[in-house]
Amino acid sequence: MIRTPLRPLARILEARQKGENPDAIERENTRIRHEQMRDSSRQRAEGRLLVLGVFFFCAFAVVGVRMGVMATTDPTEPRAAAPGSVISAARADIVDRNGNLLATNFETHALYAQPHHMIDPERAASKLLAVFPDLDKDRLLKDFTGKRKFMWIKKKISPEQMQAVHDIGEPGLLFAPRDMRLYPNGALAAHIMGGASFGKEGVHGAEVIGVAGAEKFFDGYLRDPANGNKPLELSLDMTVQAASERILYGGMKLMNAKGATSVLMDVHTGEIISAVSLPSFDPNDRPHAAITGDASDSPLFNRSVQGVYELGSVFKIFVATQAIDLGLVTADTVIDTSGPMRVGGFNIGEFNNKNYGKQTVTGIITHSSNRGSGRLALMIGAERQQAFLKSLGFFEATPFEIVEASGGQPLLPKRWEELSSVTISYGHGLSSSPMHLAAGYAAIANGGYKVAPTLLKQDGPKMGERLMSAQAASDARLMLRKTVSEGTASFADIPGYHVGGKTGTADKPGPRGGYLEDKVINTFASMFPAHDPQYVLIVTLDEPVETSGEKPRRTAGWTAVPVAAEMIRRIAPLLGLRPTVEPGSVADITLSSSN
Fold first, then answer.
1. Which residues contact 239 (CB under 8 A, 6 or more apart)?
2. Cα distance between residue 145 and residue 137, in whole Å
3. From start to end of 91-150, where are the E strands?
4. Which residue in 108, 140, 248, 458 has the most C-beta neighbors within 10 A?
């Protein structure tokens, strides 16, 4: 800015020449400068007033619009908000079909430390070791006296432990609220529940996320606040599950088996009433997954869906049913089961080299003839056999609603030739899970309709397409009943409860091919009541051996069948099934009239 002098020399000289007073020039210039300064100040003030006016106008406009919006919307409950409180720990409960609690949330706390706020780190480390003996004192002391400003000590502590830490009186030891997942029944239905853990977490809260089983499969539903904390209702019956686990565990120990599994399924709805896998674990303290060794040795291994085995002679009923359904045979058609029988360059033999001779189709199932089943399979043909087993669900993982089920993919032969058809007819050459087998037997039990295993409670029958005629299914049920009353499963002939079923003894494959000596997978696939089946029960034992006799016995008739029989005897009343009392013989009494 150029400042004009108040006494410009040129004008002063000119004024002196004219005889004028130079001071008048200075006074005039001073007046003009003051007027300019006053005009400039007035303009700045007017600009500031204008800006302030616009600001107030906008502020009142925003307030007015907000008040208008609030006046036209429905009222809602206010929610407290704080920095970092973005973690939602809410998780719905899980209940069984009768509303009994299987999984819920429990309010607890986590323990963390802020070492820079500690008064006496050494004392704090010593006192913490008294409360939590599993902690490393040297590591604690190093962390407490180092540069760390935050560290987790325990992710879950009990109320008693919390009080003990509080009594230490160390301001650097703090508590974070937690909602941990609690399974009040302990190990009951552990493989179905799976387990949960913490996801994203902070000092104000932590996510509870599913890590396995139903907890992980239904994680989205359980964490969705839109469900209003409505519990997830499963098809399991806690009472039946508890009885099944207890009996199966006793049977596994009695038969010296390394593992066992059972599946109880409603044949009309597909509901899984109980599913047991042993050995088991407590989901409240879920163990770590094994990274070495055989996966089936881990308690986390779910044998009912992940255990893909050759299940043996339990498959024979499928080939007999299909042959009847196609009109190739009837239940009374006679088949020569005598040897020798060579298919694809291999001999087809019988158990213990028996020779059953000529047998009806019913006799083939009752006596469990390999050659008889094989000859039925040759009559059917590989293509039709594949189509039938595929329709029963043996070509893909079961849709059962736990994450482990997707890993139970059946193992099929690379080339389905005549030899494959024959061996698969008696349960070798195709590996599947007990859950697959339950769905297959359910189709026979319910009159020929496909039904998918489900973990969710249903409100009525959920049968799908028809897979076989009602007559073929009826004939198959009669064969299974006769197998129990006269055949290899006689230990399952329970007074009051008519049971139909089929035994299966399959050699275990070795890790390098071939089969292991004296190691078998035994299965009993059953349905009850046999005249009008409501449930299918599959019991499988891994490497059982019955040792009460002079020689060890490893067949399913001596191992799996007695365990399944005891299970049916115990759970049938829990399922509301009344025993059928057969009338006894009439005493030799002669009635006479008094007239």
1. 98, 574
2. 12
3. 94-95, 101-113
4. 248
By the 10 Å C-beta count (0-12 exposed, 13-18 middle, 19+ buried), 550 is classed as exposed
* 465 & 557 share domain: yes
Taking the model in full, what pTM does it have? 0.80
Structure tokens at 297: 């040795």
Burial of 72 (0-12, 13-18, 19+ CB in 10 A): exposed
Q: Fill in the amino acid letter for 244.
A: S
CATH number for the domain spanning 171: value is 3.90.1310.10
Residues 158 and 257 in one domain: no
Do 209 and 251 reside in the same domain of the chain? Answer: no
Q: What is the pLDDT along the chain (595 residues), one digit of tens a residue?
A: 456 676 677 667 777 777 777 777 777 777 877 888 888 888 888 888 888 888 889 989 999 888 888 777 765 544 444 444 456 557 899 999 999 999 999 888 999 999 999 999 999 999 999 999 999 888 988 889 888 899 999 988 988 999 999 999 999 999 988 888 999 999 999 999 999 988 887 777 778 889 999 999 999 999 998 887 899 999 999 999 999 999 999 999 999 999 999 999 999 999 999 999 999 999 999 998 877 777 888 999 999 999 999 999 999 999 999 999 999 999 999 999 998 899 988 999 998 888 999 999 999 999 999 999 999 999 999 999 999 999 999 999 999 999 999 999 999 999 999 999 999 999 999 999 999 999 999 999 999 999 999 999 999 999 999 999 999 999 999 999 999 999 999 999 999 999 999 999 999 888 777 788 889 999 999 999 999 999 999 999 999 999 988 899 999 999 999 999 999 999 999 999 988 865 555 455 544 444 3
DSSP assignment string, 345-404 = TEE---GGG----EEEHHHHHHHT-HHHHHHHHHHH-HHHHHHHHHHTTTTS----SSGG
Dig out the tokens for 336 from the structure.
């020569």
**CA-CA distance, 555 to 488, in Å (whole number)?**
10
State how far the Cα of 124 lies from the Cα of 77, in Å rounded to an integer. 43
Measured distance CA(307)–CA(295) in Å, rounded: 10
Residue at 73 is within a domain: no
Over the Cα atoms of the chain, what is R_g? 41
The answer to whether residues 278 and 362 belong to one domain is yes
125 is a domain residue: yes
List b or e across 315-330, with b for residues whose CB sees 16 or more CB atoms inside 10 angstroms. bbbbbbbbbbbbeebe
Tokens of 11: 């004008």
